[in-house]
Design brief:
The chain has three domains: about 170 residues, Gyrase A, domain 2 (2-Layer Sandwich), CATH 3.30.1360; about 60 residues; about 50 residues, no CATH class. The protein is built from eleven helices and eight strands. A six-stranded antiparallel beta sheet has the order 1-2-3-4-8-5. A two-stranded antiparallel sheet has the order 6-7. A hairpin with a 5-residue loop joins strand 1 and strand 2. Helix 1 packs across helix 2 and helix 2 runs parallel beside helix 8. The longest helix has 24 residues. The protein is elongated, with a radius of gyration of 25 Å.
Length: about 300
């Protein structure tokens, strides 16, 4: 993860216990509800099977097959719901994921908070010379930069309070506040689209602040859907896609004739059973791998 994050347990008004991860100095991620689990994904795919009628290994194999072949509907049957506290500029990236349902704190109805995001340490970096929307090397004047952030925040909050005291409507008064102001929201999404969110927002090219929130959200969800998350990591998050030309190069120059000669190998360390165990692949996955690496017939 990009920042130091502390996982704690909080108790809601109903007395229910939930997990929470603190993000940066003032933000947090709370997983307040989930619907379904790994078995529910399997049930949605099989339909005819009830709970408890399948072995864990069968559940795992099916879920991995669904993820591998992009059969997304069964994953859409499960949901995760969060309570988030985050800066408005991070919220603007979160809201881009339009498949989610959300309700945000209202600055028209209530007064905005007096809390603002203050970048720390290596979050203060110069503009990248190669990426117009990224950061580069560490900035040497961190103290001076933080002074400027705080100066703007203090002045903005004083102006906001003055406007409220002048009885200007809250919906207009909030216009003087910067996007570093903290807001809160309830954010709910199905599991398939949550994985899509994580793939984009936990990627190394995403802004570091949204990555911290995405990483924290995924950390809380993973124990609830361990098999689905394992499949997501293997086939989506940590996978690599090759173009047709790249695959031709791999088949010709890397794999060569190994697939055609596979069945004749007698090496104790190079046979299907050993390789399946070593790389945690099912028999079906091994056969699909061979198909992918086989030379195409003209």
């Amino acid at each position: 993860m990009g920042s130091e994050q502390l996982e704690t347990i909080f108790v809601d008004e109903s007395g229910d216990h939930h997990q929470m991860i603190e993000v940066h100095e003032l933000g947090f991620v709370k997983l307040i509800d989930t619907m379904g689990d790994d078995e529910e994904v399997e049930n949605a795919a099989r339909i005819s099977y009830g709970k408890g009628t399948r072995k864990v290994s069968q559940t795992r194999n099916l879920i991995r097959y669904l993820m591998r072949h992009k059969h997304t509907s069964p994953f859409e049957m499960c949901e995760v719901k969060f309570h988030l506290k985050l800066p408005i500029f991070v919220m603007r990236q979160l809201v881009r994921h339009r498949t989610a349902n959300l309700n945000e704190y209202s600055g028209r109805y209530s007064e905005m908070s007096n809390e603002f995001y203050l970048p720390q340490g290596d979050y203060l970096q110069k503009q990248s010379k190669t990426n117009n929307q990224g950061r580069g090397e560490d900035h040497p004047k961190k103290g001076a930069l933080q002074f400027e952030f705080n100066r703007i925040y203090d002045n903005a909050m004083m102006a906001y309070q003055t406007l409220l005291e002048e009885d200007l409507a809250k919906e207009v008064s909030r216009a003087v506040l910067p996007v570093a102001n903290y807001t809160e929201c309830i954010w709910k999404v199905d599991l398939h689209n949550f994985f899509h969110f994580v793939r984009l927002r936990s990627d190394s090219h995403a802004q570091r602040e949204i990555r911290d929130y995405s990483d924290a959200m995924y950390e809380l969800v993973k124990p609830k859907f361990p098999i689905c998350c394992e499949a997501f990591e293997d086939y989506v998050r940590d996978s690599v896609t090759f173009s047709a030309s790249e695959m031709e190069f791999i088949r010709d120059c890397v794999v060569g004739d190994i697939i055609e000669e596979w069945a004749r190998y007698t090496d104790e360390e190079f046979n299907d059973e050993v390789l399946q165990g070593k790389y945690n692949l099912s028999k079906r996955e091994m056969n699909e791998l061979k198909t992918k690496l086989s030379k195409k017939e003209n």
